[in-house]
Every structure is written in structure tokens, then in C-alpha cells.
Write a sequence for this structure.
């Protein structure tokens, strides 16, 4: 991170991954995952809008628990017996389970195997379980019994930290004033932040200039 910038933001290293910045938007979810040993029924549902950091936080949790991470799209083809012997498992994008033949049955059996040995199950999704449209009643009842924790859309503090890091990763020197200019004018997601920084970098290289407020205004006008 650039030494010019002095954002007073707490951060938590993601054990070999990118830094995980803590703000009001994600602190409660992070605390909930930290307390995984106390989860009722040893399970938790993590929900949040697209690009809010669910996958990042799931990987932070994996580094704490040695969990295996499986996408819902691949669940029907996974070795459920092997997963059921793990101490912790993450299933991502669970709102799409009904799309994949056999996925609900696979999660049902996995849930039961993990519950038998009191292993931890983390399920991530963009929406609450009641909105997944699960067709298997026995699975629906088990998932609906799981506690839920939420990632909110990134707030200014979190977006500022993400922007600073994205610029620093590209070795682009910026000022706090530029961050303050971008925040109220950009779409409020990590995906939008990545796209904006990449676009500013490309435009600056094409023009042979630095990333300035004037350049940012031009790029934002095109978005």
C-alpha cells in the first residue's frame, strides 16, 4: 500500500491471500465465521450481494479450518463420501443449487454426514435460503434451520481501502483526494472497483499520463 496514504482502517491478513479489510460492511460476518466452533448445528449461511467479498471471506475461513471449497455447480460430481469425512466444507453459490441435477441430493447427504461428526458446513449465496427455490423438502428444512450472517454492500471505508490496494498493486501513485472523488461516483461493488482501476490504468497508459482527477472524470463519464 502506498506510504502517501493514511487511511485509518483495520485489516486482517488472509493467511497468504490478499489482505482482508474490515469495515462495518463485513465485521459482523467475519466475527460469525471466527466463531465457527460455536455455530448451532455446526453450520452457517453467508449471504451478500455479488462481489461483496463472500468468496474472499470463505477463503479466509478455509485457511482457519482447512475446509474444502466446492461450487454448487460441481457438487453433484464431487466425492461426497470424501467431503463428508472433512472437518469443514464450504459450498459456494448455493442459490443456484436447483439449476444443477443431483446437487440438492448431494448437499443433503453431505449435510447429514458432516452433522454426524459435528464437522462445520459453510454455505454462501447472494440471497437468503428461503429464496433459493430448493425442491428437496428434507434439504430445505435443514438449510432453513441454519443461522445466517450477512455481508453488506461495501461502505466508503471498505471501498477506499480496496481502491488503494488495487492502485498499489499496479504501482500507480494516487492521492487521497482522488479516492474521495471516485467514491461517490462509482458503482458500489468490488467488481466495479476492479474494473474502474483497470480502465483508469489502461487509459493512463494509452495517453502517457498519470491517473488524475481529470482522467477519472473522463472515464466515469463513459461508464
Amino acid at each position: 500500500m502506498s506510504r502517501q496514504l493514511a487511511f485509518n482502517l483495520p485489516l486482517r491478513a488472509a493467511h497468504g491471500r490478499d489482505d482482508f479489510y474490515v469495515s462495518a460492511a463485513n465485521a459482523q460476518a467475519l466475527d460469525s465465521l471466527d466463531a465457527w466452533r460455536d455455530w448451532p448445528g455446526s453450520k452457517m449461511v453467508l449471504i451478500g450481494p455479488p462481489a461483496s467479498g463472500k468468496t474472499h471471506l470463505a477463503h479466509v475461513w478455509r485457511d482457519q479450518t482447512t475446509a474444502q471449497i466446492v461450487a454448487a455447480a460441481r457438487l453433484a460430481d464431487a466425492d461426497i463420501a470424501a467431503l463428508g469425512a472433512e472437518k469443514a466444507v464450504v459450498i459456494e453459490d448455493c442459490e443456484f443449487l436447483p439449476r444443477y441435477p443431483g446437487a440438492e441430493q448431494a448437499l443433503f447427504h453431505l449435510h447429514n454426514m458432516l452433522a454426524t461428526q459435528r464437522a462445520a458446513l459453510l454455505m454462501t449465496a447472494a440471497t437468503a435460503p428461503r429464496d433459493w427455490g430448493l425442491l428437496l423438502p428434507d434439504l430445505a428444512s435443514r438449510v432453513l434451520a441454519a443461522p445466517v450472517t450477512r455481508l453488506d454492500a461495501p461502505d466508503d471505508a471498505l471501498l477506499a481501502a480496496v481502491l488503494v490496494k488495487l492502485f498499489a498493486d499496479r504501482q500507480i501513485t494516487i492521492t487521497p483526494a482522488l479516492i474521495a472523488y471516485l467514491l461517490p461516483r462509482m458503482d458500489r461493488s468490488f467488481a466495479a472497483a476492479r474494473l474502474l482501476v483497470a480502465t483508469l490504468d489502461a487509459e493512463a497508459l494509452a495517453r502517457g499520463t498519470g491517473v488524475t482527477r481529470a482522467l477519472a472524470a473522463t472515464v466515469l463519464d463513459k461508464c
